[in-house]
Amino acid sequence: MDALFGGSFDPVHLGHLVVAETAAEALGGATIRFMPAREQPFKRAAHQATPEQRADMLALAVRDNPRLQVERVEFDLPVPSYTVRTLRALGPRHPLIRRVIEVPAIAVSATDVRERVRAGRSIRYLVPEAVREYIAAHGLYR
């Protein structure tokens, strides 16, 4: 079974990964597919990294975990990204099964990560090392 985890992921942080890992375990080893929004309707023009950069950071963050993958379906859809449109595009590849699971509360936010980068502060241990390197190499969030 696959589970979808949508969001901005601007950038992905360890809280996202802990939630995904917990969900995979709670769902009996399901594959968790991160779906970065191309452009969320309530955050229009608010993303600081491009959709491709956010997906690239996700790919770096999950590359060593076979239960976590990146789904880029929204990149081929019109903006803004609406869940109903995305689910229709996924179609029969992912039958819709609704299940609510409890996940841990993690006190880290993408907003905090971006603010720390902008202020020249460390984001080590807030994001995966490969994501930290990507952010630095691409000059994101400065």
Provide a descriptive summary of the structure in words.
It is a single chain. The protein has 142 residues and is α/β, with parallel strands linked by helices. Helices cover 37% and strands 11% of the residues. The protein has 5 helices and 3 strands. The protein has a 3-stranded parallel beta sheet, with helices on one face. The longest helix has 13 residues, at 14-26. The model has no long low-confidence stretch (mean pLDDT 90).
Briefly, what is this?
The chain is an alpha/beta fold and 142 residues long. The protein contains 5 helices and 3 strands. The radius of gyration is 15 Å and the shape is globular.
Tell me the CATH topology. Answer: Rossmann fold
Which strand order spans the largest sheet, edge to edge or round the barrel?
Answer: 1-2-3
Helical stretch tally? 5
Give helix and strand order, one letter per element, not per position. Answer: EHEHEHHH
| Average residue-wise pLDDT | 90
- Could you tell me the number of beta strands? 3
The CATH homologous superfamily corresponds to HUPs
Beta-strand fraction estimate: 5-15%
Compile the SSE list and pairings.
Blueprint: E1 2-7, H1 14-26, E2 31-36, H2 51-62, E3 68-70, H3 83-90, H4 110-118, H5 129-138
Parallel strand pairs: 1-2, 2-3
Helix pairs in contact: 2-5
